Amino acid sequence: MVDFIHNNKDLYGVDAICRILPIAASTYYRTLDLADNPEHRAKRDLHDEHHAEQIQRIWKESSGRYGVRKVWQQLKREGYVIARCTVARLMKKLGIQGVWRGKNKQTTRSRDDQKRADDLVKRNFNADHPDQLWVSDFTYIQTHSGWVYTAFIIDVFRGGSGNLNNTYK
Fold it and tell me: CA-to-CA distance for 87 and 67, rounded, in angstroms?
């Protein structure tokens, strides 16, 4: 709208155009002033710009993990006086957020009616010499880039896990 007024002010005049359009002439002049003199902006805008830089810095230093609460606490530790809701508003404006701790996904659903692998060692996790008894298991973990599957194969004689010698029911 300001561009329209600026392009047609010589032909019709600023006051006449502003009367037809539902804006005050002072709004037009204020917009031009702010374009030429950014220091004339409202204090809130100036503070927001400075705080947004600090919020972005702290968020990046945390590798994108910190949310509103931790960013706000870090700003307070660094001596900034800023409200928590302001941090939330600026983080939303910047399009950044912390890592959410969600509920752990249930990856295994054991049921009594399902067939289980036979217990070939009969829960006897003792070996007298190497390569006599090997045990294995696998697990999977959800990461940001998808599921990671890991298999473990352990020689019972050499150990490697304190839980192998325990008896579980």
Answer: 10
**CA atoms in the 13 A half-sphere facing the CB of 80:** 20
Nearest residue to 75 (alpha-carbon basis) of 87, 90, 85: 87
The residues, ordered by sequence, that sit 6+ positions from 88 with a Cβ below 8 Å of its Cβ are 68
Concatenate the DSSP letters of all residues of the chain into one string. Answer: -HHHHHHHHHHH-HHHHHHHTTS-HHHHHHHHHHHH-GGGS-HHHHHHHHHHHHHHHHHHHTTT---HHHHHHHHHHTT----HHHHHHHHHHHT-------PPP------TTS-----TTTT----SSTTS-EEEEEEEEEETTEEEEEEEEEETTT---GGGGS---
Residues facing residue 136 across a β-bridge: 153
Whole-structure pTM value: 0.46
Kindly give, in sequence order, each residue whose CB lies less than 8 Å from that of residue 81, ignoring residues fewer than 6 positions away: none
Amino acid letter for position 27: T
Q: What pLDDT band is residue 87 in, cutting at 50, 70 and 90?
A: very high
Phi, psi of 9, rounded to the nearest 5 degrees: -70, -30
